[in-house]
Amino acid sequence: MLPVVEDFVHRFNLSDFVVVDDSGLMNRKNIELLASGGYKYIIGARIKNETEEIKQWILSLEKIDGFFHELGKLPESRLIVGYSEDKAKKDRYNRAKGVKRLKAAYKSGRITKENINKRGYNKFLEISDNVQVVINHKKSMTTKNGMD
Fold first, then answer.
1. Residue pair 43/22 in contact by the 8 Å Cβ criterion
2. 3-class DSSP state for residue 123?
3. Which residue stretches of the chain are H helix?
4. In sequence order, what are the beta bridge partners of 40?
5. Distance between CA atoms of 19 and 48, rounded to whole angstroms?
6. Which DSSP string do the residues of 99-121 spell out, in sequence order?
7. What is the pLDDT of residues 49-61, one digit of tens each?
8. pLDDT single digits (tens) 94-120
9. C-alpha span between 122 and 25 (Å, rounded)
10. CA–CA separation, 42 and 18 (whole Å)
11. Could you tell me the sign of the dihedral formed by the alpha carbons of 50, 61, 98, 26, in that order?
């Protein structure tokens, strides 16, 4: 990634450049390379990928639509967390829709260990005794809830 960034900065003679990326496309090595090159960056992140301490801080925050919280200065970065009621509604709707699909598949007997993965709404399932599948309703009600 760094060669692409450096080429872009040099080609357009940029003096102030900020890399903005999604956490799915960024890894720790790329972040270290950007930092060592003196580049500024903004990276979207998922709560589940944070330390337990940071997760607890985020989940303890008051959820105010459009308001941002900042976790003081971390060693070499800042963590800014925002809440969106629209995103929370969308997430609730999508979780409910996903669980409804899982219930339909479960009821019809189409859920088997062979076709289970942890992507999408299958993450709400628990597999036991190699064949018994149940929907974890607690998990389906407690994900993200609009926090970014």
1. yes
2. helix
3. 2-11, 28-36, 52-60, 85-108, 137-141
4. 18
5. 23
6. HHHHHHHHHHT---GGG--SSGG
7. 888 998 999 999 9
8. 888 888 888 887 788 777 655 566 556
9. 23
10. 7
11. negative
